[in-house]
Amino acid sequence: MQYASRTVQERSGERFAADQRGGPSRPTRTKRRGKRKSPLWARLLVIFGAVLMVGSTATIVGMRVLVAAATSSVTQQDLLGSGGTHGKHASINGAKNILLVGVDTRVGNSAMGSRSDSIIILHVPAGHDQGDLVSIPRDTWVSIPAYDNGKQKYAGGHDKINAAFEFGSRGLTGPAAGKHGFELLEKTIQGLPGMSGLTFDAGAIVDFSGFTDVVNALGGVTLCVDEKTTSIHVGFTKSGREAEPYYFKDGVPTSRVPGVTPVVYNPGCQYMVGWRALDYVRQRDKLANGDGDYGRQRHQQQFVKALASKIMSGETLTNYSKLTKVLNTVGKAMTIDPGNFSIEDWIFAMKGIGGNGLITIKTNDGNYSTDYVNGQSIQTLNPTSMQLLESVKDDTVDSFIAAHTDWVAKS
Fold it and tell me: For 269-283, what is each residue's pLDDT tens digit?
């Protein structure tokens, strides 16, 4: 079935041309089919990046006030299942692993449930002076274990890793869906070759749409586009009305909608407001270099760096009102399980991680290698990628990086 595009009312009092230049706002929109939740980078940056940087701003604003702003709006929920630490790590000291999940909620299609749109393991070495970000491609072909969420049973089988969250949450809604989807994804990762014994000390589910507001609270960010990127989500008619530019079948863009021009991000550094920045980093289908999910991961990582730089800039850190607004906005976009520790414990323990302390490591060295199973395209992790994941479990990521310097993404 192909889905027709839907338009929204013309922006009032603003010129379409201004928006194309990255102007201050976007037209009011009706709810769009296939609403997605966040890729993961941003929440990770904030709670385990920017929010964790709160400690370094103590001489500028009150530490306790900032901690309150960073935590008061965050939803806390039990997400970690039997694969969590559950008392194994009684101290906040030592190496820590945090599972970060962005969720794709398919509105109006309860049978499909929710699939994880982004999966990132944040590894914090024992020194707590850096954070190693390892993304697992959503199309990675894996064995998903059998699971009973109390409402429906999943018999187990092979599928893309992003299906694990959906299978765990089937038949459930609200917090229960998040908890069981997260737990089955966690078990699936722990079932990868060589990953037995991996535990997670904390976890988070993040709302993609919420980070549009974070970028806007910061006044926008500057991103350097490295390849021509065509949006499959946002386009405009000649009259300036917004519309989806592509027809879709099974979530894949098939053909252009007549009369609708998609937004195109051309190479070069450019200022972007919230919706443009988030739309840009969501794209993987129409990238000029054909690098798909790896290209999207790279753009997400670039976004993390740009967002961290903006948060750590003098214009933000010295502006108490702006900083607290940013932290509150971040909190509203996240659901966190802090494990055995409070969020405040995490903030103070990780305050040594600055914007330059976030290191992104590419699985498969960033190379997009497609295979096919039953007619669907999949990804497989090569042996070196499995060594990378084992180094996360064993807290030997520094040694892996030293031996594979080209796997570290450039800032």
Answer: 999 999 999 899 889
